Every structure is written in structure tokens, then in C-alpha cells.
From TrEMBL:
UniProt keywords, alphabetically: Membrane, Transmembrane, Transmembrane helix
Listed transmembrane segments: 23-55, 67-88, 245-267, 279-299, 311-332, 352-372
A Pfam family annotated for this UniProt entry: CbiQ
Compartments, record wording: Membrane
InterPro entries: ABC/ECF_trnsptr_transmembrane
Organism for this UniProt entry: Tessaracoccus flavescens
Keyword Transmembrane helix annotated: yes
Membrane topology note: Multi-pass membrane protein
One GO term describing the cellular component: plasma membrane
Main location (coarse class): membrane
Protein name listed in UniProt: Cobalt ABC transporter permease
Length: 382
């Protein structure tokens, strides 16, 4: 029995690539959890957790190296939010940190002030808002770094296969453009072209670089499209008029239900509540999502396509999504049914942010995919 359990665990932990929908579901759930709070300690904790999961579970593919750029963008967002608070009047509280020379504006510009006194409350408000937006950006960067974009597009429902085919060709065009540029530059270096002197010679050099690069990238993209067409991409099955009408009707029902739900949600329309749950809005959302799923299944069941080595949804994918959904549900319930001051620390008067035991457990659960999911397959270059 012990040996069987050990074998199952070892087989589960074999290095493999997780389903891209699992990583996107995990990242979106963490983004939803962080968007419902302004506690900087919790937001920075989510950023640290996302960094841990991404660093430990990203592969060696080119898209996995893009996470650093999202971190730079997140830091830039925080700095810009604080900078805007300081630039356009930062005296929104009694605690003045310093005073900058104010820039006078014309009399017709009302309600806007440049520089002047800067308060602690204004700086903290900008930092809290910037940290929340930065956390969302980091979550999307983690999803892009962890999920294979080609596998993600290939795993789309059958009704969206045409969109997936177009996106695969478009996504592969940019790496092919960079590789073509390296090939042309290497060829020019081997030829040892003479140094340019006149303006016409410099324009000639640009022409001899841009035209071969674009033509080579276009030819390779067309070759990819032709190979995909040979393998059966872009071919549809025969759909009966009844199925076509049914899928169209379900799509209309889905758009109508989701539109009414969005109007009620954004407009704050009073709703009938059962156990403090909005009944009408919940029914509209469920009907809209259910009709959309049914329309996609009916439209895609006649599509004939194959996928090379598809990634199956397993226990690891379910655990990864659950580690994102549990924190989102916990913080939502905490914000609506319990003492929510810890999720929204006061700025004026200033209140020190804190974390209690449930929020620490939320961060621990969010960090579990770094340990309970299989490690990715690392391709080592010879």
C-alpha cells in the first residue's frame, strides 16, 4: 500500500506542462482577490506569492522570460500613481510632509493645482491604488509567463478554432521576424559590407535589411499557414440548419442575459435577496454563461480537428485553480460579511495596515502551486 502511494505521488510529480487554462484561471482568481482590497501588506503579499509561483513553475521557453518586464511595469505604475498625486495637488489631508513651489495656472482652470503642499494621506492613497493595479498587472504577467500561448490557442473550444488558427499565425510571426533579423544581420556581417558614407548609401543599407527581413518572415508565416491547412486546420464539418439556428438563439440569449446582468450590477439596481444573495442578478449571470457554453458546444461539435500531444486536465490543474479560487472567495466573504476594516485600512486618519491569521492563510494557500504542482520540463541547450 505504501509503495503504491509512493508510486502514485512520484508519477504525479513527474515534470510536465500544466494546462494553460489552469494557470490563467489561477492568475485571474488571484487578480480578483487583490482587486477587492486596498491593504498594501496583502497586495504586496500577493505580488510576492505570484513571483514565487512564476519563478518556480515557469519553463525555459521564450515567453517565460517576459515576467521581468511586467515587474518593471508594476513598479512604474506605482511611481506614476504617486507622482500624479504629488503633481496635481497632494494636500488632501492634514499631515503635510513637504511643500513644493506651486505653479500658477490661468483663472479659467478651476479645480486643478500643480505642485504645492504634499500630504501623507495623498501619497498613501496613490500608493494603495497603484499597488492594487500593479498586483493585477503582475497576475497577467504570471499567466503569460506560465501558460504556453500556442497550447492555449490550440485548447480553445471547437467553435473558436478559426480565431485560434489566426492567432497562432499572428503570434508566431513576431518571433520569426526577430529570427529573420538575426539571420540577415549575420549574413551582412559575413559579407563584410563596406562602411556607408552618403545618405543614399545609408538608405540603401536600410532597404537591404528591411526588405529581406519582412519577406523572409512573411514566407515563413505563409509556410506555417500552409502546413496547418494540410493538417486539417481551417476545415469545418457539416452543421445542420437546426443546430445553426439553435446556436444562434443561445448566443442571443447569452448576450441579452449578460447585458441585463451588467446593467443591474453597474447601476446598483435593488434586487430580491435570499440568504443575502441577489437572486435576479445571479439567475441572469447563470443563464448568460450557461447559454454561451451551450452555444459553443453546439457550434463546435461538428468541427473536425486534431491536436498534437494535447494537455489533459488532471488533478494538478484542479489544485492550481482551487488555490486561486479559495483566496478570492475568502476575501469576498470577508469584505461583505465580516469586519472588513482590515481589507480597507483608513488613510485619513491614518491607520496602520495589518494582517490577521485568515489573511495569512490566504497567502499560504495562494503560494501552494509552487510546491504541489509538477515542475515544468526544462529544455537544456547542448
Amino acid at each position: 500500500m505504501v509503495a503504491t502511494t509512493r508510486t502514485v505521488i512520484q508519477r504525479y510529480l513527474l515534470p510536465r506542462q500544466l494546462h494553460p487554462f489552469a494557470w490563467w484561471g489561477y492568475a485571474l482568481a488571484i487578480a480578483v482577490a487583490g482587486s477587492t482590497t486596498t491593504n498594501p501588506l496583502l497586495l504586496l503579499g500577493f505580488i510576492a506569492v505570484i513571483c514565487l509561483v512564476t519563478v518556480s513553475r515557469r519553463g525555459s521557453n521564450p515567453w517565460a522570460r517576459s515576467f521581468r518586464m511586467y515587474l518593471y511595469l508594476a513598479a512604474f505604475i506605482i511611481v506614476v500613481r504617486i507622482g500624479f498625486r504629488v503633481l496635481f495637488g497632494g494636500a488632501d489631508g492634514p499631515t503635510i510632509l513637504f511643500t513644493l513651489p506651486e505653479i500658477p495656472l490661468p483663472s479659467w482652470v478651476r479645480g486643478i493645482r500643480l505642485l504645492g503642499p504634499v500630504s501623507l494621506e495623498s501619497v498613501l492613497s496613490g500608493f494603495y491604488d497603484g499597488a492594487r493595479l500593479a498586483m493585477i498587472v503582475v497576475c497577467f504577467g504570471a499567466a503569460n509567463s506560465l501558460a504556453n500561448p500556442k497550447k492555449l490557442l490550440a485548447s480553445l473550444p471547437g467553435a473558436l478554432y478559426e480565431l485560434g488558427t489566426v492567432m497562432i499565425v499572428a503570434v508566431s510571426a513576431l518571433p520569426q521576424l526577430g529570427e529573420s533579423l538575426q539571420r540577415v544581420a549575420r549574413a551582412r556581417k559575413l559579407r563584410r559590407a563596406p562602411a556607408t558614407r552618403t545618405r543614399r548609401e545609408r538608405l540603401r543599407v536600410v532597404e537591404t535589411i528591411i526588405v529581406p527581413v519582412l519577406s523572409d518572415a512573411l514566407e515563413r508565416s505563409l509556410s506555417l499557414a500552409a502546413s496547418m491547412d494540410v493538417r486539417g486546420y481551417g476545415r469545418t464539418g457539416t452543421q445542420t440548419p437546426r443546430d445553426r439556428a439553435l446556436s444562434l438563439g443561445l448566443a442571443l440569449v447569452s448576450m441579452g442575459g449578460l447585458a441585463v446582468w451588467a446593467f443591474r450590477f453597474l447601476g446598483g439596481v435593488p434586487d430580491l435577496r435570499l440568504l443575502d444573495i441577489p437572486v435576479i442578478s445571479t439567475v441572469l449571470l447563470a443563464v448568460g454563461v450557461g447559454a454561451a457554453v451551450a452555444a459553443l458546444r453546439i457550434s463546435g461539435r461538428d468541427v473536425q480537428r486534431t491536436q498534437y500531444r494535447p494537455i489533459r486536465w488532471g488533478l494538478a490543474e484542479t489544485l492550481a485553480v482551487a488555490c486561486g479560487v479559495i483566496p478570492a472567495v475568502t476575501i469576498y466573504l470577508r469584505a461583505n460579511y465580516a469586519d472588513a476594516w482590515i481589507l480597507f485600512p483608513s488613510v485619513s486618519p491614518f491607520q496602520w495596515p495589518a494582517l490577521d491569521l485568515p489573511l495569512l492563510l490566504v497567502l499560504i494557500v495562494a503560494a501552494l502551486p509552487a510546491f504541489i504542482t509538477p515542475a515544468p520540463e526544462i529544455r537544456r541547450s547542448a
